[in-house]
Amino acid sequence: MGLTLTEKILSAHLVEGELVRGSEIGIRIDQTLTQDATGTMAYLEFEAMGVPRVRTERSVAYIDHNTLQNGFENADDHRFIGSCAKKHGLFFSRPGNGICHQVHLERYGIPGKTLIGSDSHTPTGGGLGMLAIGAGGLDVAVAMGGGAYYITCPKVVKVELTGKLSPWVAAKDVILEVLRRMSVKGGVGKVIEYCGEGVKTLTVPERATITNMGAELGATSSIFPSDEMTRDFLRAQQREEVWVPLAADEDAVYDEHIVIDLGALVPLAACPHSPDNVKSMEEIGTLKIDQVCIGSCTNSSLLDMMKVAHILKGKTVHPDVSLSIAPGSKQVLNMLAANGALADMIDAGARILESACGPCIGMGQSPNSAGISLRTFNRNFEGRSGTKDGQIYLVSPETAAASALTGYLTDPRTLGDMPAFPLPEVFTINDNMLTPPAAEEDMADVEILRGPNIKPYPETAPLLETIEAPCSLKVGDNITTDHIMPAGAKILPLRSNIPAISQHCFAVCDEAFPARAKKMGKSIIVGGANYGQGSSREHAALAPLYLGVKAVLVKSFARIHRANLINAGILPLTFVNEADYDKIAQGDVLVLADIRKAVEEGKTELVVVNKTNGAEIPVLCELTGRTKDIMLAGGLLDYTREQLK
């Protein structure tokens, strides 16, 4: 029986466990990345472990999220991250160099390598044939210190692509179709592996768009084979020497099989407020728009930008529409400037933003009240844009550009013949904004630069003998990390200050939650299905930790958030019977008797007693040997320190 590509890479990197679906495995990590919204905590955690220099093949610290500097906080964070990188052996991608996933794809990604990043869209690297996984900052810190990364051995889904995309139908439409079929929780515990003859028709930037939004499926990762198309891209980036051919065996066995005929796809859009609420242009009908935003780590490659420039050339953006464009990297921006495409965009009336995440994380360009915004981004969660009642649609760059001209959601197939958009034979290479670390012998001379907004990691404590605490908050299904810990220009600058940022925890759901939880001293959160979907931000666990949350009881968890809760020492519990969700109300006092003993003994079925109404509720506490030890220690940082001793 042959192996899938995923199994081949996992096998080559396996350091603990066996490749048995559903069991915990530890894998060696070759590369890591961080960005500045999650990076400060990751480097504080790395420092706390006491490891002087990173032990990976390549680790990179990117500045791409908190680039709006309307106070000292973001600039201080950038200096802190830059000094940590210099001292501890990381490359530092300076502000303006571009979005981490776009730059990493261009300059550092290597087929067959493992990559984890403190950003949920790290699977972008799967477009190059990497096994790239989003993780919490503490997991990344451990990997930088040479530790293994632990995941549940995933199922592997074969998405077989046949045919070829029709003119003006895009890679974005491919992943939207996958989301339409699988939903935002359909990929949990799985790696999505793309195969078939249709793969050969897709360039690396197109593949990266598809793997990028695998995060929205809840998938562990997404991956394409490494073939001649991969080689062409790396050759054009002047990195052909790192190319290796990689593919699944012909007789590989998959857990699921989906077939998508690329030629049958049409332009699609994800409607508010979920990436899997996917409809065709025909289904949506006439839709007047207010704003178009093009960019993000999903759709900001040179290929995407050249298509947009072609559509806009010689035309003018509709007077009722605000169009902003953010090229994904300095390389992309340089090449657009050199070939005249940037001038075409500006002439049409586009507002050119810096090469950063920007509007995707609510960092500027929020739409007007109840405004309809078409975005080439990966998420359209309620309020994420910075406008609470904003109506966000996710579309391809082709659809976005065509619609910006008409003022209505427009099928790009109305544009007429589509010219060929080949990738350049050679990309412009200038790595002057990628700062290398200090030499090992010079490390001691490097000073870590700390600003007053940078606060220590929250205090942790070993698991209590018994947890008796009120339910401080009860929420429904599909609660995202944007609900738990919002982003945006006002909140992101507080990422290095957990006491301050915790005051915004769950503000989207209940503005009174932070004060209520803090007053309770310790509490339990109750939620529905797919709790914690979305980004990798560990702040969605660290803020509740600071506010005294001891356990989270839900119908089901998203993968990264559950791991982050364990890393923070917060007990993750799930209902045995989902109907028991109705037996708890906010304010009810819940009791987990002798919980420490139960965890020590490895019990998985426990009982939560609702002291307020007398209900006895069976729950699952599924902790393996390692996660059990992490929970008993009070979190991954405490556990790691003990292991290093």
What does this structure look like?
With 645 residues, the chain is α/β, with parallel strands linked by helices. It is built from 21 helices and 27 strands. The protein has a seven-stranded mixed β-barrel with strand order 21-22-23-24-27-26-25. Strands 7-6-3-4-5-20 form a six-stranded mixed sheet. A five-stranded parallel sheet has the order 17-16-15-18-19, covered by helices on one side. Helix 20 (625-633) packs across helix 21 (636-644). The protein is globular and about 70 Å long.
Looking at this protein, list some descriptive labels.
single chain, 645 residues, alpha/beta, six-stranded mixed β-sheet, 21 helices, 27 strands, 29% helix
Write the topology of this structure.
Blueprint: H1 5-13, E1 14-16, E2 24-27, E3 31-34, H2 36-49, E4 58-62, H3 72-88, E5 91-93, H4 100-107, E6 114-117, E7 131-134, H5 137-144, E8 149-152, E9 155-162, H6 171-182, E10 190-195, H7 204-212, E11 221-223, H8 228-236, E12 256-261, E13 268-270, E14 278-280, H9 281-284, E15 291-294, H10 302-312, E16 322-325, H11 330-339, H12 341-348, E17 351-352, E18 372-375, E19 391-394, H13 397-406, E20 434-435, E21 467-474, H14 481-484, H15 498-501, H16 513-520, E22 523-526, H17 539-546, E23 549-554, H18 559-567, E24 571-575, E25 589-592, H19 595-600, E26 605-610, E27 616-620, H20 625-633, H21 636-644
Parallel strand pairs: 3-4, 3-6, 4-5, 6-7, 9-10, 9-12, 10-11, 15-16, 15-18, 16-17, 18-19, 21-22, 22-23, 23-24
Antiparallel strand pairs: 1-2, 2-8, 5-20, 13-14, 21-25, 24-27, 25-26, 26-27
Helix pairs in contact: 2-3, 2-5, 6-7, 10-12, 10-13, 20-21
